[in-house]
């Protein structure tokens, strides 16, 4: 595991342990990092917490789009002719 992967693992562990209710000190002790590191990642996560995107189409519209795309495909095209531009 490279350094970047280790850092990402530590960050995700910090957030997971915090969501389980552990204190900053307990997380720092468990992961062998400083309390300032734990606090920094908790704050950054809170500032940038990802939220799911709102749907732009309904499920019925999705089904219609998929059906239309499947019926308009041209099976006679070679792979080189199917290039997307």
TrEMBL record:
Transmembrane segment boundaries: none
Entry coiled-coil feature ranges: none
GO MF entry, a single one: DNA binding
Keyword line: DNA-binding, Homeobox
Biased composition regions of type Polar residues, renumbered to the chain: 69-79
GO cellular component: nucleus
Segments for region (Disordered): 51-85
Protein name: Putative Homeodomain-like domain-containing protein 13
Localisation: Nucleus
Stored InterPro entries: Homeodomain-like_sf, WH-like_DNA-bd_sf
A Pfam family: HTH_23
Organism: Homarus americanus
Comp. bias regions, Basic and acidic residues: 51-62
Keyword hit for Transferase: no
